[in-house]
Amino acid sequence: MMKKLSLTTVAFFMIFCxxxxxxxxxxxxxxxxxxxxxxxxxxxxxxxxxxxxxLSSNYFSLSNSGFAYSDAFxxxxxxxxxxxxxxxxxxxxxxxxxxxxxxxLLSFGFNINDRTxxxxxxxxxxxxxxxxxxxxxxxxxxxxAGFGSSEANFEGLGLNLNHYREYGIGVSHQLTKKLRLGIxxxxxxxxxxxxxxxxxxxxxxxxxxxxxxxxxxxxxxTAGFQEVDENEGAMEYFSGRDNKGWGLDFGANYELNExxxxxxxxxxxxxxxxxxxxxxxxxxxxxxNYRGVDIDILDAQSPGGETxxxxxxxxxxxxxxxxxxxxxxxxxxxxSRIYMGANYKLNDQTVAGGILHTEFFQGDIRPxxxxxxxxxMTKWISLSAAYTLINRSYNNLGLGLVLDPGPVQFYIVxxxxxxxxxxxxxxxxxxxxxxxxxxxxxxxxxxxxxxxxVIPNKSSDASEEGNTDSEAPPANEx
Length: 478
Known about the structure:
By secondary structure, the chain is mainly beta. 12% of the residues lie in helices and 50% in strands. It is globular, with a radius of gyration of 26 Å.
């Protein structure tokens, strides 16, 4: 069955699905300071850098594993229609949707010595993650009548919305000639959160009366939305709420020989404890009965100020036996990620490699694979390309450009540029861009030079033990 949609709905859907994400190309761009956000052991080429506020790093992404625009919409005689049957058939039993926004408010870094770099960043983060299954869309499309006497299972439905600020300090250190390690600690300040701690909902429809019977084991927690102090000023909102947390990133780069190198990182191990303006909704898992509520579309508002929509929400809350609690402290975990990669040096200007990426969110494991190639075209121009398998989609071609004449560095990378030209087929898209000021760089045409500072003498056994007495060969500096 096809249902005609309004232009407003279509426009919203297009905006929502054209944007998308991940950080695969940036992971290997060690000459760009922001690569430390994916692997804190990376070392940028230079003695000191400063990121221009709100310009050095802007990141946007959206991924939807369930469907693309072309799976849902069809144009017929100049009108757009929604094909719900094809949309549902395209989905897996379990799917997810995520949106991410990251903007650097402040960032800088410098060399502590020849082997060690320190970086600092203040980053505003907003992200949204939703786990949904096929039964949810089938219920939206056909209602409870669409299941007959069978049971609709919404198990695994998960929601996480986060708005927080990150204050990070990272250290990258050359431990031996071949091994470089990095660690980054993060203080997190939370502003708003919605977190589904538990969700197990099942419904069954009576074939005669269409009344809904079922059970629900549900815990939904929120912070920053309910009963906010109307006298709270801007300073209290941006820095005064008692929602604090911590995070850690780890990374390593290992050079096996002149051709092969390996790397790995673990990002966003941590949590935020929410204390201010908290409210939770939960039930005890008892069976419920829901017979609906009368809705008069023309009755916009009752004399008491209650709308039909309010009555629906009240009746649902009563049926689910939801209990509200205010002021309860709770913790929400960050969505942790693991990167594992290998690079092969084709020549001094070209490096090829692969990255295996896994994200962990509320018990789900979401893998992705990316193959990439990077080439240093001139001393100040480098290009990158990648092919990525993610979200059950296989048309993700990424490109990256770094312009580095010095001291200004401009970069723009995207893991799916095809999404900009064929948004109707995209399930994943992402872009990161920014401007840096970098001083004291080594001029070179070699891509992925291992900017160790001191380059150990290969004939010296002591260099393996981290001896820093060796001297680097002469190099031009900006």
